[in-house]
Design a protein that fits this description.
Layout (H helix, E strand, L loop, with lengths): L9 E6 L7 H10 L2 E7 L3 H13 L4 E5 L11 H10 L6 E8 L6 H18 L3 E6 L2 H10 L5 E3 L6 H9 L3 E4 L7 H9 L5 E3 L6 E2 L2 E2 L5 H12 L3 H16 L4
Parallel strand pairs: 1-2, 2-3, 3-4, 4-5, 5-6, 6-7, 7-8
Antiparallel strand pairs: 9-10
């Protein structure tokens, strides 16, 4: 039987590995599932430190991104967290997960301040950004464009198609998650976007209607993109990995 060539060409471009139980087993299962690389994202000071540690222990397989998630912003911790990101920015391949969340209980003006500071760092150090923007896509897009950032990934995009077209016109990317199995808005976005602007991810350990996701489940994201676009799995695997390589500046 011919080997499925898509099985060794996948990158999980968004994983919270610091939150994954049985991490060594999960990483082993990911390798067996053909996940050649994982981008591990940070959310606050503690997770950034843990993410760097995990990446250092798994070179060539785990690549760190440093972030400050809008859910995790606490005013007394802002200065220390931003300083840590800046001091270790040469150790990461992107800034993420960062962004805005208008359902979070954090004041909007504080979110804007932190997000703006991180975008400024991304511009200064020429880093891609991995964005969380729940109910805040337009403002997030505006802030990214104001700083003339070249590389932005709108993770798990489930916004309107009109706004998606603005994101694509600006040259930015979106990512596909296992939520494609049930989310009409997410499905519409992936159907609309060209394959050259799509990444695969899991956002693990997010639970998708009973599935506690792990990096291996990027195979589900692949399967759903294949289904929605009617393409060969090898084509989707190769193109999404090429997209990630170009975006992060890493030959995965």
């Amino acid at each position: 039987m011919e080997k499925d060539q898509s099985k060794d060409r996948l990158v999980d471009t968004h994983a919270h590995l610091d939150q994954v139980d049985n991490l060594l087993q999960s990483l082993s299962e990911a390798r067996q599932a053909g996940v050649r690389a994982i981008v591990a994202v940070g959310m606050d000071l503690a997770s950034n430190k843990k993410t760097l540690q995990i990446a250092s222990e798994n070179p060539g397989h785990v690549y760190p991104a440093l972030g400050y998630h809008p859910w995790e912003i606490r005013e007394p911790e802002v200065e220390e967290t931003l300083s840590f990101v800046k001091d270790h920015i040469d150790q990461c391949i992107a800034l993420g997960e960062i962004g805005l969340d208008y359902k979070a209980k954090v004041r909007k003006n504080l979110q804007w301040k932190v997000f703006g500071a991180l975008l400024d760092l991304a511009f200064e150090y020429n880093k891609p950004v991995i964005l969380h923007c729940r109910f805040s896509h337009q403002r997030a897009l505006d802030m990214v464009k104001e700083r003339n950032l070249r590389k932005a990934l709108f993770h798990w995009y489930s916004g309107t198609l009109d706004l998606l077209e603005k994101i694509l016109t600006a040259g930015y990317f979106i990512s596909a998650t296992p939520a494609l199995t049930y989310s009409p808005l997410h499905q519409e976005a992936i159907q609309h976007a060209p394959l050259k602007r799509i990444f695969l991810e899991t956002d693990c350990p997010v639970n998708y209607q009973g599935l506690d996701s792990r990096p291996r489940d990027v195979q589900i994201s692949l399967r759903e993109v294949v289904r929605l676009k009617g393409l060969d799995p090898r084509v989707v695997a190769e193109q999404t990995t090429a997209n990630a390589s170009g975006f992060f500046g890493v030959r995965f």
